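Q: Hi! Curious about what Glutamyl-tRNA(Gln) amidotransferase subunit A looks like structurally. Here's the sequence.
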Amino acid sequence: AQHFLDRSKAHPELAAYLALDEAATLAQAQAADQRLAAGTAGALEGLPLAHKDIFVTKDFASTAASKMLQGYRSPFDATVVRKLADAGVVTLGKVSCDEFAMGSGNENTAVAPVGAAAAAPVRNPWDASRVPGGSSGGSAAAVAAGLAPAATGTDTGGSIRQPAAFCGITGIKPTYGRVSRYGMIAFASSLDQAGPMARSAEDCALLLSAMAGPDPERDSTSLNTPAEDFSLQLNESIDGLRIGVPAEFFGEGIDADVRTAIDAALKEYEKLGAKLVPVALPRTELSIPVYYIIAPAEASSNLSRFDGVKFGHRAKDYADLQEMYVNTRTEGFGDEVKRRIMVGAYVLSHGYYDAYYLKALKIRRIIANDFQNAFKDCDVIAGPVAPSVAWAIGEKANDPVANYLADIFTLPASLAGLPGMSLPVGLGAGGMPVGLQLIGNYLQESKLLNVAHRFQ
Ligand code: GLN
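A: Let's find out. The predicted structure is below.
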């Protein structure tokens, strides 16, 4: 823990951490030492880990990178935080993300990182002029730069997979409901899912085994599927494995350098005994408008709790209650968050609900059905995580649509609630890492980790 704390403090230029507290971390590490000495160690005893600042923690402030929650202290730990602590994990601190997990580049952040006076985008450790991806950009940058051996992330539409790809690490978004959402600051509740980000599929399997499991009293959407040991299948042979390759993931939008790296990875899999089979995901393109209706709709509802009354920021100047709400939200939310609230309120409003929201829900169901058709012919689906390698900081900062389009390959699995992961498979333009995405059927995390581990 001391090593990773020192290294984290030595690299403020990455802007990865929003909170570090050496005394709190070392107290947790000492408790781990005592359990090791007493012979009561957990499966991950003493392992240092950074939490995305979307998970609430008792020992550190929890901000979701928003002014709205600057300095906020939760009276309880998120279930993920508690379960990892029960397994012996020592919290290094809280890492940056896009505000309320809305973004793809970790540029939408409103809280100053450790060692800085003002909010700053997280830097990609491979090339500091580029984004680390988002929204779990702090998690990905911290692991890639060796500031933490592992981190938690959350993925609503790609936020574990895409930053893992951009920073050359491994991350898995489990099946929706595998991991409890309790204490995860909510973005879009029907999509939000937590998962581990680490240096290998093997590490992800160890972490996920501690994170997953039912939480019926606190998250009614958590699945009633007992936690399993996700490491058990890691070394199974993949001889004869059928890898589905959707043509829609290899069309016009994908950059040539990414395509080359993905094609090479698929060839490796053939050498390992896998068979490539063509599958169709014909509604891939529609996943962008569908997601960008459903996610903002849910966000507009979830974020209504930030009203200046219950917790977080409250405006100083106001004449009456209405103005208190308006000024609080005007000051507390960043531009992207406001954009989502407006879009969400619009698509849910009378007269537009049927035209947009209801239609999006129907197409979401069709997208999920398309996957079930594809899984009749294959065991896992493979393709790129993103159409390009990490872009330059600032390049897409003022262009929300360009950001949304870059999510095209991660959104389908999110809308269907399927598990998906990213593993590094090579380098593309500028020597930047390229991630291969593996998508499995429901509850097939062990299979995905097995397939990734065989490559690694
Ligand atoms: N980039 C997507 C968005 O901005 C996904 C974010 C996420 O998965 N949290 O909504």
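A: A fun detail: The two ends are 26 Å apart (CA to CA).
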